[in-house]
Write a structure and sequence with these properties.
By secondary structure, the chain is mainly β. The chain is built from 1 helix and 36 strands.
């Protein structure tokens, strides 16, 4: 959903109406990844027959700045092992040759951004049929379901030319890249219940099609991630953010952050309106798109965002830092980039706030530190914490901290919330 715009003189609450409040805190976000983060795996499309062209799609990635891609095709044995790079096969397409017949073909995609390079692997294709074969896989079978111990996954039959009379299945356990596969005993159905011994492996189904005396095998796609013991939603690698200027009439945009999940990760948004201290937050009815636009009546309020990320295993929740308070429509001073906190978030270690970037150069700043919940909301002022630096106390453990910066330029003043600290502990 795009931006919602209120009538002139109306605010977000008037535009959307208010409903009930906050959800539970998000889990730990982990370390900043090196290179882009994969959100949907590369795939290979095309007919698995000599003389036919395969096309590799890079998958879906999130990263920092522009993302560049490199491709490398591999030739593996019939079991998807002993993979060797194919000389010169570094474009998104590859035309199968006679040497590929009876072998499997793999694709590795390398994605690079300003932080580094990461690799991802498309599912194996093959074994490759001869040119003009009597029976050939035209659409690869697909594994569906979450690869979690105790859950059941299944495989489609794919599409064959000509239409086949009989389909049979055999499940195989592979390495984390979906290669070097071996048959799993007593696993011959269309569905498979994931076992403890599958932990850390990829799973594929070898699908065999039969017409009269003609047989042809093909690998399914691999499970979208290695088998896990228990998973409940994707993992947040970097927190979501609200971008844009917190001013009446300016658009605010939700940035999802970076996530690691099983299969494609999808997102749902909910915006909140809070008071000038980041408390008394109410969800904005209908404000479920990636953008909103505060109105004049929202001046002095703060804006929050809750993000729900869903993959094959479930849903996880993360919170963007509050932005605001929203400046009025004629405000001469506005924070165009929020203040930030530096330092180690632990009792006894000093934290310092950098005042951010402002529409006009402020002549001075004053500060207040706030103790907030793990979601960066429900904040209360900390007594006597009115300097640019603050040393967390034991009572701050289990909370996040925010610095409220009050900037002055001439006779104008404007408050701005910092980005919330990591939980103190």
């Amino acid at each position: 959903m795009g931006a919602r715009r209120g009538s002139r003189g109306r605010g977000l609450a008037a535009t959307f109406g208010c409903a009930a409040a906050l959800a539970s805190p998000a889990a730990s976000t982990g370390a900043l990844p090196v290179g882009p983060t994969l959100t949907s795996a590369p795939i290979v499309i095309g007919v698995a027959s000599a003389g036919k062209r395969l096309t590799g799609l890079s998958g879906v990635w999130t990263g920092t700045g522009a993302i560049l891609y490199r491709f490398q095709w591999f030739r593996c044995n019939a079991a998807g092992a002993n993979c060797l790079p194919i000389g010169g096969a570094t474009s998104p397409t590859y035309t199968l040759v006679a040497k590929d017949v009876g072998k499997t073909v793999g694709l590795t995609v390398y994605a690079s951004d300003s932080t580094g390079t990461a690799a991802a692997y498309a599912s194996l294709v093959g074994p490759i049929a001869t040119a003009a074969p009597p029976l050939v896989s035209t659409v690869q079978p697909v594994v569906r379901g979450a690869p979690v111990v105790g859950r059941t996954i299944s495989v489609t039959s794919g599409v064959w030319s000509p239409v086949v009379a009989t389909i049979s299945y055999a499940w195989e356990r592979c390495d984390p890249q979906g290669r070097a596969c071996a048959r799993i005993p007593d696993a011959g159905g269309r569905s498979y219940r994931v076992r403890p011994e599958d932990l850390g492996h990829g799973l594929v189904a070898l699908v065999q099609a039969a017409n009269s005396t003609t047989l042809q095998n093909t690998f399914s796609t691999s499970t979208p991630a290695v088998v896990a013991k228990t998973v409940d939603g994707p993992l947040s690698l970097t927190l979501p953010e609200i971008t844009g200027t917190a001013a009446s009439g300016s658009q605010l945009i939700a940035a999802t952050g970076r996530w690691q999940g099983v299969g494609t990760v999808s997102f749902a948004f909910q915006w909140y309106l809070c008071n000038d201290l980041g408390s008394d937050c109410s969800s904005l009815h209908g404000a479920t798109g990636a953008t909103i636009q505060p109105g004049p009546a929202d001046a002095g309020k703060t804006i929050g965002l809750t993000l729900r990320a869903t993959d094959l295993t479930g849903t996880a929740i993360a919170y963007a830092s509050l932005v605001g308070p929203v400046s009025g429509p004629e405000a001469p001073l506005t924070a165009t980039s929020p203040p930030t906190i530096t330092g180690k978030p632990s009792p006894g270690s000093s934290l310092t706030v950098e005042p951010g970037v402002w529409s006009s150069p402020p002549s001075g700043y004053t500060y207040r530190w706030l103790r907030c919940g793990l979601d960066g909301r429900d904040c209360t002022p900390i007594k006597h914490a009115t300097a640019a630096s603050y040393t967390p106390a034991p009572t701050d453990s289990g909370h996040t901290l925010i610095a409220l910066v009050d900037a002055t330029a001439g006779e104008s003043t404007q408050l701005a919330f910092s980005i919330a600290s990591a939980p103190i502990g």
